[in-house]
């Protein structure tokens, strides 16, 4: 009735196991030791090198990298870098990190946040204002991964892969003939996993998911026999998950409508879509062909000119060397 899939990282495997221990305490015959309120539940994973579902950004994907390079040259990204250049340089000088960019500043904030959470003393230069600004830039860095511009195509190459997998499971569960016995599918992954998924759904709040965050999909069968999907987001331990509504639908979204709205971000062939389209190089190709064609045309003209001159010479004259004089 339950299937659990985790990335192959200690922290995500441990999170899955800890959650399962709380969700499924042993009862009756499941209790093998009265002093241990726990029962073993399988957690599935794959090698990191084979992970193509839960660890984002998904690589290798040349087209995604191309889109990221284009985003780096966007007005928003360039202006954001310019506005924070002195601050980023200060962080680089204080940390000793050579290149602190909008993309990499998250690692600085993450380290300081963990130290702060464990009641460790922070360096003197890390004031509350510095932490606030680092957090803002870190959140922008997460948005950069999957948005800012071309977010639909980025979603097809990233979060849409996981969303497509979830859609298949929802459809299978709604299909009475599929004999789907699973009641719960759990994915234990990373903050970037949630951001990629929520960007594909167009429900991301532009704030990095905190620890233990959870995005829930619930499938309901209505009185008329049709199915609907409801989504919730749990990003605070002390509060109930709050509802998420996909743009273009109500919170309780009919399954068919949910599938229609998410179709644009689902890749049909991920590997093929990740390739850099040849049309991108058409201008360079045309220029190259034009240059080669021009050179070939000049060679043909030159050859014809030489042949014409040879044929136009008088047949009664030819050059004869004065061998006697040369020998003398």
TrEMBL record:
<dbReference type="GO" id="GO:0007040">
    <property type="term" value="P:lysosome organization"/>
</dbReference>
<keyword id="KW-0378">Hydrolase</keyword>
<keyword id="KW-0732">Signal</keyword>
<comment type="similarity">
    <text>Belongs to the histidine acid phosphatase family.</text>
</comment>
<dbReference type="GO" id="GO:0005765">
    <property type="term" value="C:lysosomal membrane"/>
</dbReference>
<dbReference type="GO" id="GO:0043202">
    <property type="term" value="C:lysosomal lumen"/>
</dbReference>
<dbReference type="InterPro" id="IPR050645">
    <property type="entry name" value="Histidine_acid_phosphatase"/>
</dbReference>
<dbReference type="GO" id="GO:0003993">
    <property type="term" value="F:acid phosphatase activity"/>
</dbReference>
<keyword id="KW-0458">Lysosome</keyword>
<keyword id="KW-0812">Transmembrane</keyword>
<keyword id="KW-1015">Disulfide bond</keyword>
<protein>
    <recommendedName>
        <fullName>Lysosomal acid phosphatase</fullName>
        <ecNumber>3.1.3.2</ecNumber>
    </recommendedName>
</protein>
<keyword id="KW-0325">Glycoprotein</keyword>
<keyword id="KW-0472">Membrane</keyword>
<dbReference type="InterPro" id="IPR029033">
    <property type="entry name" value="His_PPase_superfam"/>
</dbReference>
<dbReference type="InterPro" id="IPR033379">
    <property type="entry name" value="Acid_Pase_AS"/>
</dbReference>
<feature type="transmembrane region" description="Helical">
    <location>
        <begin position="285"/>
        <end position="308"/>
    </location>
</feature>
<dbReference type="InterPro" id="IPR000560">
    <property type="entry name" value="His_Pase_clade-2"/>
</dbReference>
<dbReference type="Pfam" id="PF00328">
    <property type="entry name" value="His_Phos_2"/>
</dbReference>
<keyword id="KW-1133">Transmembrane helix</keyword>
